[in-house]
């Protein structure tokens, strides 16, 4: 690991000043991703600004029934929050499906939003990777692609976005609040993560000097009946091959409300708008669920190693919606 | 002087052997007091880190170490340009018969595999060493390399057999019999490379004192390490001390001498400092071999009653490491009329493979036991019934007697305990909500090896007993079980026996391999205790004087005949001695003679029956193992707790082989792509159900104390049992491991 300077500011203003004045500075949340990447030589900050002392660790009610989550709330704390569990169960389930208890105790909401891909070639300094070194090429394209994305990919990069939490946030239309010495911004989750295109090194809309301060969840009654289903290579402690965040409201046998987002298959947390559109107003039955899933996956670009993901995603979407519909029936 | 330890067989029931006792090393490990190879501090201790080659084959044309040297705290960067030379490996040397350990690291510019160490950085701190290592830049002249097993596999050549394992066998004309068999299966199997992933990454602390060397090393063979270092550094063995009182697991990965050990010693020599080289997990993947990948063909022919008329098992594995006995279980498990076995190997330019828990059998039984199951489907016959119809009375190929064989009992007991009769024989017929439920069985089989073991047993005037043997505590309870044995043999309380292990200054112990450490040492402990009692009897006055050893009993801390006798303390006091000591010396000459003699008479094997229940998600193909029972014949069980731990651990490892583990070697470059525990998926707790282990606990009449061996048999058969249960749940036969969900979609 390259030697670096370490500072721990006590308030947000000091943190913002530090990042604006220190070139090559990075914020440090729980460190569960940044420190790993520093160890591998992928991240090489000159200064690390530890933000865990900042007072951004509360979950506050919003007047309309939504919630505002401080950027430093730990993943395990957020998953256990009774308001999250009652109003947005998919988010709680997504958090608990990620990593391990020890990691979730450390990981912060801000850090989770910015965690980087697990593409093995990205991690390996001996491999060619456009994300790590623009223009170097992409060893994943003809390599092991089991973990790679099939939606939103480009010829430059097929890395999957690894976060479970972000999939739920995408389904819930969360808004990311950020701040810098230049002022505050609100970034809708759908615009926060970028598709790789020809510039896979640019991953988010966040500027280097911007601090994530909070994530806002709008009030969303349909989310009270929602779930997160994660499919992976072992029962726990593995990244998603496919995951589905879904909320469903059925009225008179027809879909009256739906939210659907996918993980493991997208170059970014994937809001499944095509599927939602196909479902809305239609029958809430197996055939419709599958058709909707297929509509979403029609745009998939697969490699031999990840071609199974279209079928797997289709099956997982259908199964998740089926279970939600059954729950509705049950009351 | 040598004692034939087989003479000292004792089979009387005794109080400590058989008890499920806690391990003596437990408290030290639980409290963190136990010191592993990387936990030893020395004045001026320096830290080393490896630089790995990033091409599979070629020459290093330039090494830029300037940036590395400029890092604060760096003491030296050793490369082939400046490192002291190690002596080459002699042609035959145990401990270095894995080619990987024979490479003359840092002696030439040659690169033999991606990951081979090409430089070692020595620094004041581990962080400085690792950072500097990342700054070393190499340029290469690349040479063509063979790295893709699937592509090279057709070029395989017959594997050379050796004295212990031959690589081919025939009985009759199996291919002809197969062609005319009324019912047959012919399947091709693929198993991927695997890595051991012991919890303790390999580590070495090396200290030179003039020409004397002390090495703390995480090893399964102290003796190999010492011998190998003596050869490579040109110092006599007596000037080298190797210490390994605690080893954090090995599974075969610490059986040979790999780069880390050698380079730590070399770095210490070059810098004049005590040096610790604790490999990162990535460095373990790059410098220590794992289990060879295989392709296998198993074809079975049978008559309509299920009697096997032909058994064909051929395999391709990698050369260079252990000669893997992939087809060995096919020699002993079934009474087929005709048999054809062949093992082939192919050379690859990758880190050489090495032994990994049940080398050969673990993957060979996957193929054989899957094929037998598939034959049962063809015959529409219960798979246990099919096995029982082909259970041999004598060894099928040689006609020799089995020293012990209880597979019938194992399956009978398992059938009851597991509720096998509740299995609906139709595929896909058992369903529980979203889950397709399946049940499968497979046979476990492993032949333990008995290695030489030298031992001393000392009785002090205060009644304290010290057993000394260079055993390896790799997490198996090595000291615990020998203590139980010695206490019983001498008739003293457990608490008065101390067992010293893990030091080359002790009498040479067996290597911790081949499921043989415990039984090998036990044989010598028995012999030494016997000798000690004879010496004590000779020293004893009345009422024991003149008694034959067979007429006295060792109990209550002394020797007794009828109601009369003397405590050991009394005997020693009477003789004016402060202790007596008995030594049993055992070596490779004995070993060869014993193996030859035993091998002529009997076929030894630990065996078992695995019962597995899986649940397969009907939508996604996710496989969850929901129940497990293993019924084993491992001969006598010394300690039910440590034995069950070994068997259960083997089953967990088998679950990983079956469902999630594989080392991904990039077929373009030969580079391991998932060199980390976050991408190499060993089973986590959520993957492992409650595992019910039952040992039949019946002593083998031909071995000292009736022991067979428990370390490896547990893993054999496990992947097949899972695959067979998946076949039952889904109707799909998955013949390439691991059984990932995409194969079931
Ligand atoms: C073994 C392992 C398994 C894992 N498994 C999963 C999994 O299954 N699913 C899953 O979703 N995740 C998984 N993770 C990833 C884990 O969720 C992330 O590492 C974690 O969420 C990152 O949060 P952190 O606070 O530790 O971030 P850090 O590592 O501290 O930071 C990550 C990035 O965010 C930046 N950053 C942090 N806070 C802020 C802020 N407030 N404003 C601006 N920038 C900021 C940092 O500069 C850095 O670039 C796993 C991680 C590991 C190590
Ligand atoms: S997929 Fe993306 S992250 Fe992975 S190697 Fe290619 S460019 Fe790099």
UniProtKB/TrEMBL annotation, chain A:
Keyword Oxidoreductase (UniProt): yes
Q: Which SMART domains match?
A: CO_deh_flav_C
Q: Where does this protein have coiled-coil stretches?
A: none
Which GO terms fall under molecular function for this chain's record?
FAD binding; oxidoreductase activity
- Fetch the Pfam families from UniProt: CO_deh_flav_C, FAD_binding_5
Source domain of life: Bacteria
Instruction: Give residue ranges for domain FAD-binding PCMH-type.
Output: 1-222
Keywords in alphabetical order = Oxidoreductase
Q: Which SUPFAM superfamilies match?
A: CO dehydrogenase flavoprotein C-terminal domain-like, FAD-binding/transporter-associated domain-like
Name the Gene3D superfamilies on file. 3.30.465.10, CO dehydrogenase flavoprotein, C-terminal domain, Uridine Diphospho-n-acetylenolpyruvylglucosamine Reductase, domain 2
- Report what the protein is called: Xanthine dehydrogenase YagS FAD-binding subunit
TrEMBL record, chain B:
Q: Name one GO molecular function term.
A: iron ion binding
Asked if the keyword Oxidoreductase belongs to this entry, the reply reads yes
Q: Which UniProt keywords apply?
A: Molybdenum, Oxidoreductase
Q: One Pfam family from the UniProt entry?
A: MoCoBD_2
Highest taxon of the lineage: Bacteria
Which InterPro entries does this one have?
Ald_Oxase/Xan_DH_a/b, Ald_Oxase/Xan_DH_a/b_sf, Ald_Oxase/xanthine_DH-like, AldOxase/xan_DH_MoCoBD1, AldOxase/xan_DH_MoCoBD2, AldOxase/xan_DH_Mopterin-bd_sf
Keyword Translocase present in the record's keywords: the answer is no
The cross-references to SMART domains, in alphabetical order and at most eight, read:
Ald_Xan_dh_C
Its recorded name reads: Xanthine dehydrogenase YagR molybdenum-binding subunit
What is the originating organism of this protein? Nonomuraea maritima
